[in-house]
Amino acid sequence: MLKGALIGCGFFAQNHLCAWRDIDDVNITALCDRDEQRLSETSKRFGIENTYTDAHEMFANEELDFVDIATTVETHLPLVEMAAQAGVHIICQKPFASSMNDAGKMVSMADKSSVTLMVHENFRWQSAIRAVKTHIDEGAIGDVFWGRVSFRSAYNVYSGQPYLATDEKFIIQDLGIHILDIARFLFGDVGSISARTKRVNPNIRAEDVATMMLDHDNGITSIVDCSYATSLPVESFPETLLEVDGSKGTLRLNSGYQLMCHNHDGTRHIDVAPPLLHWAEKPWHNIQESVFNIEQHFVDCLRDNRQPETSGHDNLKTLALVYGAYQSADNGLQVVKVGNG
Ligand code: NAD
Ligand code: 89V
After folding, report:
1. In angstroms, what is the span from residue 74 Cα to ligand 1's centroid?
2. Distance, CA 106 to ligand 2 centroid (Å)?
3. pLDDT tens digit string along 281-318?
4. What is the number of alpha carbons within 13 Å of residue 41 lying toward its C-beta?
5. Nearest to 209, CA basis, from 220, 225, 194
6. How do the domains of the chain map onto residue ranges?
7. pLDDT at 136 (0 to 100)
């Protein structure tokens, strides 16, 4: 049985804890939040009795195999440092860090302490995204030469996550980070990126629209576009839509989790809708399923002593795209080298 603790009992951590309950041979034995009310509500909801308002105290008192850090980005560096010093494996929410420097420090700390460090970069774990990856890998459309990864919505994300309206950076750092990671997952590492951003909603502080172009090392070009200012007849939050063109055909992941595969054998339409887990709620079920999948992956990696797909090292490449995109947007669509490969 692996013993874990969770730090940060906020909006999204509730999903983490629901998923942990369903992972075999894992027990979340302690919770930490500096907000006493959130801590006590979460403790009652999940029946976890060991609670702390101070993470130092928790690491000193608890015998843990791993910690799940579900706080917002500004706290990740000190919490990862504490966990590494305690010799505890780490799963840390995205955005991993607010600078490449901090991210590099956390990766080095984990390496020095020989603990596994995985970033909770879960969008690539959605079953619809995995289905597209399988089609590409099986050669269903030949050699891929172009792709588009798109997330466009007018969903009110600010109600559940008010900090998104006031943070200095918004859509690339919060959501684009997932969409850029999917582009890396499907099309490979990236040599350079250019981007343009815009703020449409006057009531928020930072950009809510971003359009990015990626030059992948294997010659694929992709467009990654995100918007929280796009009102459509059918609101598809939180679906990521995909277009992939290959030498022998095309793939389209359309709204409603409908995958179209067109090649010399004809055109197939496949329903790749995620399962509705017993604790999940639409429309979030797609993301909630990916939380279960990534937690299971973390545990499998600990057991098999292998690096997770979205290890801290791997996530440095996704973060480089985030900060490269901001640099490009600040400098009139400058092409920014990110040397991802
Ligand atoms: P939140 O503000 O609702 O919750 C964060 C909690 O952490 C709060 O209760 C706060 O009191 C606590 N906290 C902060 N610093 C602490 C510390 N040092 N010690 C103990 N407790 C501390 O935030 P949220 O909306 O749940 O988001 C948390 C993270 O999850 C963010 O980084 C966000 O980007 C990410 N997120 C990821 C997904 C996803 O699909 N991967 C979805 C939503 C949010
Ligand atoms: O996944 C996330 O990080 C969320 C949301 C989907 C709302 O952007 O913040």
Report:
1. 10
2. 23
3. 999 999 999 999 999 999 999 999 999 999 999 999 99
4. 11
5. 225
6. 2-115, 124-280+311-337
7. 98
Spacing, Cα 156 to ligand 2 middle (Å): 11
**Any residues with CB less than 8 A from the CB of 132 and at least 6 apart, and which?**
186, 242, 244, 251, 253, 259, 272
Specify the residue with its C-alpha closest to ligand 2, atom 1.
175
* Residue-wise pLDDT tens digits, 179-217: 999 999 999 999 999 999 999 999 999 999 999 999 999
Q: Considering every ligand atom, which ligand is closest to the CA of 122? A: 1
Angle 167-172-177 from CA coordinates, rounded to 5°:
115
Please answer whether residues 289 and 274 qualify as being in contact, where contact means their C-beta atoms are separated by less than 8 angstroms.
Answer: yes
pLDDT the model gives residue 339 = 81
* Domain 2-115 listed as CATH 3.40.50.12780: no
CA-based nearest residue to 239, from 319, 172, 179, 321 = 179
Q: Which ligand is nearest to the CA of 175?
A: 2
Q: How far is the CA of 320 from the centre of ligand 2 (A)?
A: 19
What is the predicted pLDDT for the residue at 83?
98
Q: Which ligand places an atom closest to the C-alpha of 158?
A: 2
Q: Which residues of 270-290 are buried (b: 16+ CB within 10 A; e: fewer)?
A: eebebeebeebeeeebbbbbb
The answer to whether 62 touches 36, Cβ cutoff 8 Å, is no
3-class DSSP state for residue 211?
strand
Gap between the terminal Cα atoms of the chain: 37
- Work out which ligand 1 atom sits closest to the CA atom of 9: 9
Q: Give residue-wise pLDDT tens across range 3-30.
A: 999 999 999 999 999 999 999 999 999 9
Burial degree of 188 (CB within 10 A; 0-12, 13-18, 19+): middle
pLDDT of residue 79: 98
Name the percent of the chain in helix, strand, coil, to the closest 5. Answer: 35, 25, 35
Residue 341 has pLDDT above 80, yes or no: no
**Which numbered atom of ligand 1 lies nearest the CA of 178?**
41
What would the CATH number be for the domain defined by 124-280+311-337?
Answer: 3.30.360.10
Amino acid at 100: M
